[in-house]
Design a protein that fits this description.
Blueprint (H helix, E strand, L loop, with lengths): L1 H8 L15 E2 L32 H15 L15 H17 L4 H15 L11 H18 L3 H13 L3 E2 L3 H18 L7 H59 L2 H11 L6 H11 L6 H8 L1 H7 L3 H18 L8 H12 L6 H38 L2 H18 L11 H20 L2 H18 L6 H17 L10 E3 L7 E3 H31 L2 H8 L2 H9 L6 H6 L1 E3 L2 E3 L1 H8 L3
Helix pairs in contact: 1-2, 2-8, 4-5, 4-7, 6-8, 7-8, 8-9, 8-15, 10-14, 11-13, 13-15, 15-17, 15-20, 16-17, 16-19, 17-20, 18-20, 19-20, 21-22, 21-24
C-alpha cells in the first residue's frame, strides 16, 4: 500500500489520446478524499485504456521513483486534487521511445497495438468485463490514438492537464478506484515488457507516474463534477422530451380543430402559441426575454440554435472550446456588443418554468456552473475572433504571388524535416501539393469570412476524405507548426513603416503589452496560428469519429480484418456499417470508397 501511495503521489500524466481503463466507475462524492481501495474500470466505447495500464516495474524502482514524487505531492492523496504534472524531458523521451518500440514489435500496426492494450485491460479488470460493450474492433484504433495524443501533449503541462480532464469526463459513469488503476498499470507494463524486453532504465517508473496521474485526475473530476453533470443531463433530457411531445400534440390538435372549423393556418398558429411556446426551451427563453422587458438580440438567437450542442459538450472541455471558437465567428457578425451576463437569468427562468417539479438549489447551482463555463469560453473566443479578423484580411491582401509560391515550396521542406514518415503519404505531383498548400491558406481565410455552419460542413467532408486516405492524426501537429513557421517568415519580410516603441495592450486578450511597431506582425501570425489550429482540431475530431473498423480494413485492403469488424457489429447494423459513416452533417460510404480506391 505504501508503494502504491508513493506511485500515486508521483502523479504522472497519461499517454496519448487513449481512453483510460481507469474510468469504469461511477464517481460519486461518497468516496471523496479517501484513497479508494479499488479503482478504474473503463468505459468501452469512448475510453482508451492507455493512461492507466502501465505499471510493471520492480518494487525497488517503484519505491525509488515514488520517493522522489512524494516531496511534490505530500499531503494530497489519490483523487484529492488535479494538479499539473511536470515530467522531465528524460521521462517524456522514455515514454515516447518505449511506445515506438512497442509499435515496432507489433509490426507497426496501430490497430494491433490498440487491440493488445484493450486485451490487457480486460484481463486486468475481469470482474467488470461485462461493462465493456463496445465492439473490440471499434475500440482498438481509439486506444492507439489516445496514447499518441497523451505522449504528444506531455511536454506542454497545461495542455496535458486539459486533455486528461477531457478523458476524465468520459469516465464519469465509472467507479475509479486506486486498486483498479494499479491493476491496469501492472497489466500494461507486463504487455510492454513482454514485447520490448530491453526497455531503457526508468521506463516503467515513467509509465507508472503518467498512469497514476490520470487515474487520480479521473477520480477527482468524478467526485467534483459528476453530480452536476448528472443533473444537467437528466434535466436536458426531460426538457427535450417534453418539447417534442407537446409540439407533436399541438400539431395533432391543430389539424383536428382546423378540420372542424376550416381555418388551418389560424388554428395552427394559435396552438403553437398556447402549446409549443411554453414547452420549447428556445421559445421559453424568448418569452422570458419579453417578460424581463429586453429584446432577444442576434447573438442570443445564434446561441439558442446550438445551445443543445453546448450542453452535450460540457463534459468535454476540449470539444466545448472548439465549439465556442466556431460559434464566436457567427456571434460577432450578428452583434457588435455582446453581454453574456444577460443570458443567465433568461436561461434559469426558462428552465424553472420547464422543470417546476424537479427544480431545486442543486439544479440551480449546476446550470449556473454550466453557463459560467460556457460564457467564459465564449468571452475569450469572441475577443480573439474580433481581434484577429481584420489582421487576417490584411495578411491575405498583402501576400503576393512570389510569397505564396515560397510558402507552397518551403512548407513541405519544413514538414518533411519535422516528420520524415510523412513523405510516404505525400507522393502526389508538385501540382497537387501546391493545390493542397493553397487550400490550407484558403481554410485560414474562410474561417473568418464564412458562416460557421458552412465552414464546419466543408471541414467535416475534408476530414472524412482523410479517413479514407488513412492519414495518421499525429501528423497534424507538425504540419500546423510548419505552416505557422513558414508564414511567420513571410510576415517578417513585410515592410513596416511604424517604428514606435510605445507599449500597447494586445487586443486578442488585453492581458499583456507589446511594442506598437511589432503589433501588426504579432497579430497576423497569431491569427493565422489560431485559424490553422482550429481547422486541424476539427479535422482530427472528424478523423477520430470517422475511423471505424470497416474504414480501416478498407484502407488496408484486408478482407480478414473487414470480416472481423463486421462480426463485431450487431446484425441489424451490419449493412449500415458498410454503407455510411456519419460525422456531423457529413457522411462517407465505406462501400463507395472501397470501389473508388480499388480495395475490393
Amino acid at each position: 500500500i505504501s508503494l502504491k501511495a508513493q506511485v500515486i503521489r508521483h502523479h504522472p500524466t497519461s499517454e496519448a489520446r487513449v481512453q483510460h481503463p481507469m474510468a469504469d466507475a461511477k464517481t460519486t462524492g461518497a468516496n471523496e478524499g479517501q484513497p479508494a481501495p479499488e479503482t478504474i474500470e473503463q468505459q468501452p466505447a469512448e475510453e482508451n485504456l492507455s493512461e492507466t495500464q502501465e505499471l510493471g516495474e520492480s518494487d525497488a524502482e517503484v519505491a525509488s521513483q515514488g520517493q522522489a514524487s512524494t516531496n511534490q505531492t505530500e499531503g494530497s492523496g489519490f483523487g484529492e486534487a488535479m494538479t499539473v504534472l511536470k515530467m522531465t524531458l528524460t521521462e517524456i523521451t522514455l515514454l515516447r521511445t518505449s511506445f515506438d518500440l512497442l509499435l515496432q514489435s507489433l509490426g507497426n500496426d496501430r490497430e494491433a497495438v490498440g487491440d493488445a492494450i484493450y486485451g490487457t485491460k480486460i484481463m486486468a479488470l475481469v470482474a467488470i468485463k461485462d461493462s465493456f460493450k463496445t465492439p473490440r474492433a471499434v475500440m482498438s484504433l481509439r486506444f492507439f490514438n489516445c496514447f499518441r495524443l497523451l505522449l504528444e501533449k506531455a511536454e506542454d503541462f497545461d495542455e496535458l492537464k486539459i486533455y486528461v480532464e477531457t478523458l476524465a469526463f468520459k469516465h464519469l459513469n465509472l467507479e475509479i478506484t486506486e486498486l483498479r488503476v494499479g491493476r491496469v498499470q501492472d497489466a500494461f507494463l507486463e504487455l510492454l515488457n513482454q514485447n520490448v524486453p530491453n526497455l531503457p532504465p526508468g521506463t516503467n517508473a515513467a509509465w507508472k507516474t503518467m498512469l497514476s496521474y490520470c487515474g487520480s485526475c479521473y477520480r477527482f473530476v468524478g467526485d467534483t463534477y459528476g453530480e452536476r453533470l448528472r443533473i444537467i443531463k437528466e434535466d436536458w433530457t426531460v426538457v427535450q422530451a417534453s418539447a417534442k411531445e407537446k409540439e407533436e400534440l399541438a400539431s395533432k390538435q391543430s389539424k383536428e380543430e382546423a378540420g372542424e372549423e376550416g381555418d388551418d393556418m389560424v388554428k395552427e398558429e394559435s396552438v403553437k402559441r398556447e402549446g409549443a411556446e411554453t414547452f420549447s426551451f428556445g421559445r421559453m427563453c424568448a418569452f422570458s426575454n419579453e417578460v424581463m422587458g429586453q429584446k432577444t438580440e442576434g447573438w442570443m438567437e445564434e446561441l439558442l440554435k446550438v445551445f443543445h450542442v453546448l450542453v452535450d459538450m460540457i463534459s468535454s472541455p476540449v470539444h466545448l472550446q472548439e465549439e465556442c471558437d466556431l460559434l464566436a465567428i457567427n456571434l460577432i457578425v450578428r452583434s457588435q456588443s455582446i453581454e453574456f451576463e444577460k443570458f443567465k437569468p433568461v436561461m434559469l427562468a426558462a428552465l424553472r418554468s420547464l422543470l417546476p417539479k424537479q427544480w431545486s438549489t442543486a439544479h440551480e447551482n449546476a446550470w449556473e456552473w454550466l453557463w459560467s463555463t460556457v460564457a467564459r469560453n465564449l468571452r475569450e473566443s469572441t475577443m480573439k475572433v474580433r481581434a484577429f479578423k481584420p489582421y487576417n484580411v490584411k495578411l491575405f491582401s498583402t501576400l503576393e504571388e512570389e510569397q505564396l509560391d515560397r510558402f507552397r515550396k518551403d512548407v513541405y521542406t519544413d514538414f518533411f524535416n519535422r516528420a520524415p514518415a510523412s513523405q510516404d503519404l505525400f507522393k502526389q505531383s508538385q501540382t497537387r501539393l501546391r493545390y493542397i498548400a493553397d487550400r490550407v491558406l484558403q481554410s485560414s481565410s474562410d474561417l473568418f469570412q464564412k458562416n460557421k455552419d458552412e465552414t464546419l460542413d466543408d471541414l467535416s467532408a475534408l476530414g472524412l476524405r482523410h479517413v479514407g486516405y488513412g492519414i495518421p492524426i499525429e501528423l497534424f501537429g507538425p504540419f500546423v507548426e510548419s505552416c505557422v513557421t513558414i508564414m511567420g517568415q513571410l510576415i517578417s519580410d513585410f515592410p513596416n513603416d511604424n517604428v514606435s516603441t510605445k507599449l500597447v495592450w494586445c487586443p486578442k486578450d488585453n492581458a499583456h503589452q507589446i511594442a506598437e511597431k511589432d503589433l501588426r506582425e504579432h497579430m497576423m501570425i497569431e491569427g493565422f496560428r489560431w485559424s490553422i489550429g482550429l481547422t486541424a482540431r476539427v479535422l482530427v475530431r472528424t478523423i477520430m469519429d470517422g475511423s471505424t473498423a470497416v474504414m480501416q480494413a478498407i484502407h488496408l485492403d484486408n478482407p480478414t480484418r473487414l470480416r472481423r469488424a463486421l462480426l463485431d457489429a450487431p446484425r441489424s447494423e451490419r449493412c449500415v456499417w458498410q454503407l455510411a459513416v456519419m460525422v456531423g452533417s457529413q457522411s462517407i460510404s465505406p462501400l463507395f470508397w472501397s470501389l473508388r480506391s480499388g480495395a475490393h
